[in-house]
Amino acid sequence: MKNARSQAAEIIRTLDARHRLCLTGTPLENHLGELWAQFDFLNPGFLGSAQDFTRRWRTPIEKHGDGLRAELLSRRLKPLLLRRRKEVVAQELPPKTTMLREVMLEGAQRDLYETVRSAMDEKVREAVARQGFRRSQIVILDALLKLRQVCCDPRLLPSAAARRVRVSAKLDLLMDLLPGLVEDGRRVLLFSQFTSMLGLIGEALDHADLPYLLLTGDSRDRATSIRSFQAGAVPIFLISLKAGGVGLNLTA
């Protein structure tokens, strides 16, 4: 229902109920419009119309980085939000440790990145010059998507030339890390927006003889995969962001 224009959201808003409650682990994933959609169901008019919300909050915060406006919106919503943190509901879990690993692109993958970057830079500039920034957002998002795909694995791109590049710095690093983690008895969750990337990771895991489970929007027996991971039967769980963002509770 976070997509206010979807048929599901429109139907949900017609429900006649004395009390309304939204339960979500990700109230905001992509943009502030998702937050508006949820509050439009909970308390219609509280944040104004979609157009008013965009003018007053989304544009200043998302496009201009207005920190004061973001703080004001947070204060406005705070009385209506209840956030349960891990240390309150799952005290048995250890604290989270964040480690960032920078991966440098090299060789053919770096060359491909520069080729795609140059081509998309020209395409974006032409689109903005022809129809303005606002009407060029699809072109801009497509450019960013292609660059992200190159960084993940060149084989995600549809062109035959890109698919011939068999170098992936991220995948190589991942496959260097995973055997040691599994040997140490660690449990590993791997998330990706690209289900095709999960497929490539799965192929590499098969080649390395490392067992894994896969959860995507196409998975039919979701519950069995979750139970297997929770029970410790398989150490690695590949999960698409879309499938993992709905009704998934893993504590193993």
Automatic annotation (TrEMBL):
GO terms for molecular function: ATP binding; helicase activity; hydrolase activity. InterPro entries: Helicase_C-like, P-loop_NTPase, SNF2-like_sf, SNF2/RAD54-like_C, SNF2_N. Residues 1-156 form the SNF2 N-terminal domain. Residues 170-251 form the Helicase C-terminal domain. The keyword Ribonucleoprotein does not apply. Keywords: ATP-binding, Helicase, Hydrolase, Nucleotide-binding. This is Helicase/SNF2 family domain protein. It comes from mine drainage metagenome.
